[in-house]
Amino acid sequence: VKGSRTGEVLLQLGPKYSSASMGPVERSNRSLHGQVRALIIVLEKQFQVTITAEHPIMPWVMQHASYLLNHFEVHDDGHTAHFHLRGKEYKGVIVCFCEEVFYKDSSLTQAKREARWDTALWLTKSRTSDSHVLGPADKHFMARTIRRKPLESRFNKAMFEAFTATPWGKRGEV
């Protein structure tokens, strides 16, 4: 952070054992923990599973919770963190966390009769390119184009249970 700033960076320490002096930081932590809890509750309900801290989906829960807060949480001034960074509100499309979606696979041949779409779990959006981050089983990758499945088939328990990819793990190409 210090290297990317043009002005002087001042390190400010709060008094020991005084969470009140760190109010904004504590409030951000509270918001993040609340968003993580909400995502876990939805996953447990949709897939009828128990999600522990060791579950492979947890790093993605944390990443997506952060994404949601940065793009959609409205602050006291009436704007989101995305607005403060980019100068405009976020207008991108997202779907439910861990929803099974169709994605356009650019690596598939473009023969007229062959399928150009495959399925994967929707994990979050990329912070840099606004592409969709998807995960089939043991890897993750980004795709520009997705389509939602019919409502009754959006949550695939078998695909969710087979998912083991981590944000720092193997990346695929699409």
Describe the structure.
By secondary structure, the chain is an alpha+beta fold. The protein contains 4 helices and 5 strands, in the order H-H-H-E-E-E-E-E-H. The protein has a 5-stranded antiparallel beta sheet. Strand 3 and strand 4 form a beta hairpin. It has helices at residues 23-47, 58-72, 81-86, 157-162; strands at 100-104, 117-125, 132-135, 141-143, 146-148. The model has no long low-confidence stretch (mean pLDDT 87). The protein is globular, with a radius of gyration of 19 Å.
Helix amount, in percent?
25-40%
Question: Strand-residue fraction?
Answer: 5-15%
Through-space gap between termini: 31 Å
Which outline best applies?
A: globular
- The number of helical segments is 4
Largest sheet: 5 strands, antiparallel
Task: Report the strand count.
Answer: 5
Order of neighbouring strands in the sheet with most strands: 4-3-2-1-5
In angstroms, what is the radius of gyration? Answer: 19 Å
The SS-based structural class is alpha+beta
Give the helix/strand layout:
Blueprint: H1 23-47, H2 58-72, H3 81-86, E1 100-104, E2 117-125, E3 132-135, E4 141-143, E5 146-148, H4 157-162
Antiparallel strand pairs: 1-2, 1-5, 2-3, 3-4
Helix pairs in contact: 1-2
Short characterization:
With 174 residues, the chain is of the alpha+beta class. The chain is built from four helices and five strands. The protein has a five-stranded antiparallel beta sheet.
